Amino acid sequence: MIVFPAVAALVSTIFAIQLLTSYVHRKRLPQLAWGIAMTMFAVASLAVAAGISGGWDPTLYRIYWLFGAILNVPYLALGSVALLGRKPLSAAGIVLVFVVTILAIGIVASTSVHIPGAPKNIPRGSAAWGKGTTTAKLPTYIAIPAYVIVVLIAIGSSRGGKLPAHRIRGNWLIAIGATIVAVGGPLARYGRGAAFSIALAVGVVVMYLGFRLASRAPRTPAPGEAPA
Questions:
Q1: Smallest Cα–Cα separation from 204: which of 222, 165, 178?
Q2: Across residues 205-228, what is the average pLDDT?
Q3: The domain spanning residue 106 has which CATH number?
Q4: Which of 22, 47, 87, 106 has the greatest number of CB atoms lying within 10 Å of its CB?
Q5: Total structural domains in the chain?
Q6: 45 Cβ partners below 8 Å, 6+ apart?
Q7: Is the pLDDT of residue 63 over 90?
Q8: 13 lies in which domain range?
Q9: Mean pLDDT lowest for which of 146-150, 162-166, 191-195?
Q10: What is the pLDDT of residues 128-144, one digit of tens each?
């Protein structure tokens, strides 16, 4: 059903606009990285909506694969890394994500896509790109390690005791939202477009709550009140 990816696209677009607007005013790297990630979720959802409603073609599938299966999670991870406040680490993350983005775009754009019969549901990556090909394995090479980084930062921030409590909770919400989206990935690979879109929409909402919480300005305690 087209309604589910359409809802996922709408939710992602609203959150992307809010995050990028926040970046314009505050010039903070986490908002920029997360805003780009939300934009990618929105574009991928629109591709799914178009593919489910009118049938897939190579261009739609490339867009979905690039922005929905490969690149969105590295930008989530970049936002989490930047939230740690370590400039050398953030700079290294920017360079790495930029290189990964260029490589992924080049590989996906130059690989042939085989979509027999213009199916209405999401074609499996191994069928579209060919089983065992580099393009089919890009999510394993790129998105999964980036997801692990998001989770490790959530775990590390809660144990280190160096980040404010609201950032620790925000990191955990981001990790939980990314997990919900990751669980939806196999649904997409097995052609369950509606279920994937529901998981995507729910995961995006949870991640956005984490973004808002993690990037919230610390509250100044009232006189005589202990800091939070």
A1: 178
A2: 65
A3: 1.20.1070.10
A4: 47
A5: 1
A6: 5, 6, 8, 9, 12, 68, 197, 200
A7: yes
A8: 3-214
A9: 191-195
A10: 999 889 999 999 999 99
Examine residue 160 and state whether it is found in any structural domain, yes or no: yes
For residue 227, being part of any structural domain is answered with: no
| Chain segment 68-82, per-residue pLDDT in tens | 889 999 999 999 899
- The amino acid occupying position 219 is R
Domain-located, residue 222: no
pTM here?
0.84
What is the per-residue pLDDT for 17?
94
- On whether the CB atoms of residues 42 and 14 are closer than 8 A, the answer is no
Q: H/E/C letters for each residue in the chain?
A: CCHHHHHHHHHHHHHHHHHHHHHHHHCCHHHHHHHHHHHHHHHHHHHHHHHHHHCCCHHHHHHHHHHHHHCHHHHHHHHHHHHCCCHHHHHHHHHHHHHHHHHHHHHHHHCCCCCCCCCCCCCCHHHHHCCCCHHHHHHHHHHHHHHHHHHHHHHHHHHHCCCCHHHHHHHHHHHHHHHHHHHHHHHHHCCCHHHHHHHHHHHHHHHHHHHHHHCCCCCCCCCCCCCC
